[in-house]
Amino acid sequence: MRPQITSPCIFACPPSSSSSSPSDRRIATLARHLVQPFSAMASGDLISASPTAAVHGDSVFAHLVRAPEDPILGVTVAYNKDPSPVKLNLGVGAYRTEEGKPLVLNVVRRVEQQLLNDKNRNKEYLPIVGLADFNKLSAKLIFGADSPAIQENRVTTVQCLSGTGSLRVGGEFLAKHYHQRTVYLPHPTWGNHPKVFTLAGLSVKTYRYYAPATRGLDFQGLMYDIGSAPSGSVVLLHACAHNPTGVDPTPEQWEQIRQLIRSKALLPFFDSAYQGFASGNLDADAQPVRLFAADGGEMLVAQSYAKNMGLYGERVGALSIVCKSADVASRVESQLKLVIRPMYSSPPIHGASIVAAILKDRDLYNEWTIELKAMADRIISMRQQLFDALRARGTPGDWSHIIKQIGMFTFTGLNPEQVAFITKEYHIYMTSDGRISMAGLSANTVPHLADAIHAAVTRVV
Q: Which domain of life is it from (predicted)?
């Protein structure tokens, strides 16, 4: 038995009369609109199928096709499905120990214990721009404590969701407020770069970067393409340890790049994902960024602490924008808040608290730099061991690029067919462009990889 639903009238319902006033007629019309839904409910007709409801039981999303796996993360998916006891994952961009295990830095564990023991800590929201100490210390880490841009308050820094989130916030800010909506990316570059900037609202073009013939930098092509870009274009630059090639410009080449970019009034946007992880020296790896900051020009820098502090899952990063004046920097920050607020409101607190604690304490900072150098040195050692193993096997080709390239990745020069052969026959996983993570290697697995590469280049053209 349905409940009796009376028709409510917010106002006293006026009599229906041809002599009623215009005001009375408006009230009567409003009353009818209010009464109709309740009448429908009483008759059981109010709840009906939504226009987007499934037809004949099918999902409203039945038309969707299965998306392909991410070309990088998909490597790990395939690796996990492989039952082989000798399988090796060289696709993931994460540091591994000599035993092939993920590493949590000792200094990170120490700080986490300190945070746990601090009874005054809480889980309140951070401000939209993030943890103040984290932002201040991140800017000092990348630009240098004595940076004029910092001292003159021309830098605004906001905490973001690791390097990817920092790039996305920067991209959306530029799409909304910058007069040029084209960003030039090196070719090749990290596979996520084009997607991040395209979805942020920018148009993506490329400039030459890697020379397959030499497995080094195509400096002439780079300079020509950047020099041909329209004035005001955004140019993405890898601060160090270029991903995926491991090829970086020399200091002299960086200076020529800077002069060209400034003379063309282009806007540099640095992606700094590996500071300290490339050479083992934080200051050395920040030199390209500091070179640009020192000339007084404007620029953007995205930072990540995933690699150099091993905080992959904590998603800790920062976006800094260097401006011409403190006043402009303040206004830029106000607009960055309007980008961040509807995107994720405010960033997470835990990882940023770890970073801030390490950066502001001299002893913890020194402990971090020691562990950081140990990671970088192990990767350098893996490069040398792989190079030596290939030479010992007489593998055709010049493999000196393995020890010339720097950072986490090596662009081996293997083609997709050779990569597929290595995966099928040796259960070694890497991206189809032949990029391998040197951090995924160990002294025990280098011979297995060297055997695979030797077989691939001698049997698969």
A: Eukaryota
Name the burial class of residue 223, with classes exposed (0-12), middle (13-18) and buried (19+) by CB atoms within 10 angstroms of its CB.
Answer: middle
Q: How far is CA 400 from each of CA 188, 362, 386, 443, rounded to the nearest angstrom? A: 20, 39, 10, 19
The token duo for 290 is 């500091």
86 contact partners, CB below 8 Å, separation of at least 6: 426, 427, 448
Query: Which of 91, 190, 102 lies closest to 436 in space, CA to CA?
Result: 91
Our answer to whether residue 368 is catalytic in this structure is: no
Does residue 398 carry a catalytic annotation?
no
Q: What is the DSSP string of 158-172?
A: EEEEHHHHHHHHHHH
Reported as a single tens digit per residue, the pLDDT across 349-396 is 999 999 999 999 999 999 999 999 999 999 999 999 999 999 999 999
User: What is the C-alpha to C-alpha distance for residues 100 and 96, in angstroms, rounded to an integer?
Assistant: 5
Which residue, chain included where needed, has tokens 């096997």?
393
Catalytic residue among 248, 307, 368, 451: 307
307 catalytically annotated: yes
Given the residues 271, 285, 399, 451, the one annotated as active site: 271
Report pLDDT digits (tens) over 438-453.
999 999 999 999 999 9
Q: Where are the alpha helices (DSSP H) in 118-207?
A: 132-143, 148-151, 162-177, 193-200
Residue 269's DSSP bridge partners are: 236, 300
